Amino acid sequence: MGKVINIVCSYSSIYGGNFIPSILFLANKILLGKMSDVIFTFPLEAKERKWVKFLENKRFKIFFIDFKNNFLKNVRNINKKNKVTDVYSHFVSGFRIKMLYPFSKKIKLFIHVHSDFSGGIEESKFTKFKRFIENKVLRKDATYIFVSKNMEHQYPNKKNIYLPNALAIDRIPCNKIDIKLFMQKYNIKETDTIFLHFGWSPFVKGSDIIIKSFTKNIKEGDNCKLIVVYGKNNGYEKLLSFLSRRNVSFDKNDRRLIFIPPTEDVFSLFKISDIFVSSSRSEGFSYSILESTYFNLRVFSSDIPGVQWAHKYDNVYFFKNYDELSELIVKEKKFKKKKKVNKNISEDFSLQKWTNNLIKILGL
Description:
Layout: E1 4-9, H1 19-32, E2 37-43, H2 50-57, E3 61-65, H3 71-81, E4 86-90, H4 94-100, E5 108-113, H5 125-136, E6 143-146, E7 160-162, H6 179-185, E8 193-199, H7 202-205, H8 207-217, E9 224-230, H9 235-245, E10 257-260, H10 266-272, E11 275-278, H11 287-294, E12 298-302, E13 316-319, H12 322-332, H13 342-348, H14 351-361
Parallel strand pairs: 1-2, 1-4, 2-3, 4-5, 5-6, 6-7, 8-9, 8-11, 9-10, 11-12, 12-13
């Protein structure tokens, strides 16, 4: 084989989601095709995740390191001991990956960029300076892979490739939500219209926008409920603190609002729900919009650069501001009928197509 790829992922989410099955599918195809050996490097926090156990059962060699301290030294040591020829990264800044080998071209670098910094989030001067060094000083032969066309201008390099994410339907086994018990616990009736929002990063995901709009425009008698999934590590307290700072107030006993912790089984949440709301201020590529569209939910999405791909699907409704979201909520709250679009979405974002494209990009 000759080649050894180190897939370096700053990913430690409780939920393996779309990403882990996708990267596993890619790694399996590379190994089965005898194109290269594959190893993984994850943060220490990922060690106890169920999806890691699944990867280990597939007999992949996995390394766990502290991504905050001695990152460069640790990755270099792993690469040296395993005779790595290519580094392929996810959720790690291009600056850090290029600093592994700032000028030497012995190891090829492939940087998969998932986050769009062009909207909603003000970058610090230091971050902008690092971006300048990354683009103008450090290695210019690195290949950048973007999940959104809008992100290319942030990295004016010659080797820029746009590749939207894939939809992975076959997920790693997880603890399933008992839908019947869930509905009983939160007093959800079959006739209710259920809105769903993922607020694990409240500012970026615009949790204040949807919660304010929902509580203002939905009355008790409307038979509507909003499920908000908050983030890990005291996520509920962080969400409440954020909403307070944004002057969004509500009664904590309001039965229209359902706040739940992160869950591996988001598919059951999609099955329970009628409308998914993505009120994000910034997105690279929204897995949530992709998945909820596959499950035939109506989707209300902020009209931002990272989600322009979704304009072709007629179950996705876009809003430019708070007032337009409010209009959508008032207009659509009573219509529970779902539009069938999952055949188109699964073909457009085929995992097989994504994998074949990546294998070409990696030069295998």
